[in-house]
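Entries read chain and fold; for instance:
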Amino acid sequence: MSRTSTAASLSATSPAASPAAPDARAAAPRPLARIAALTCALFTATTALATTTEATATTTMAATTAAEATRHTKKRLARKKSIKRKLTRGQIAASAALAQLGVSFSWGGGSTKGPTLGIGRGAATRGFDCSGLTLYAWSRAGVRLSHYTGAQFRQGRRIARTARRAGDLLFFGGGGGDPTHVALYLGGGLMVHAPKTGDVVRTTSFLNSSYYRAVYRGAVRPG
């Protein structure tokens, strides 16, 4: 038998070649790809959580800051109210008069709203006369006075020399009739007043003035 016949015979008698088996490595999951996917998902979730946490912290901080500002404002207002409550009406009146230092004297000038044009020789000048200043100052403390020194002398309680307090009205002059001048006591022998035409609202140490000591008529506390 020839070689060709032998080969053909062997081919015919040999079993058919089996199809190739699937590559186990290709069919199996790839661990590195899965780890990468999980890592990416975890990073995304962590980033989202961090963003949410930061936003929450920012909101909380803003709310805390607003609450602290509100508390601070309330405390400041409470302190102002407390200070105002501690001031006597006389102290309020004295402070109001001191705020007018330097304002011109004007005969008949002054009202509860502040300096005004006067009358007569004060018609061309905006300012206060003595009783105009005291009525303005005490109006700031909620007490209404007449715009006349003699009437103010009777609009309150007489105060002894040793009991005088800030804001008390001091009266001078007039002999046995109505006083002719009024001022507000400040303490320590000082007073604030509108003295005369050509002058301005000023403070004076009446205890060091022989004139004012000689014509002093007494003190009155309005209200």
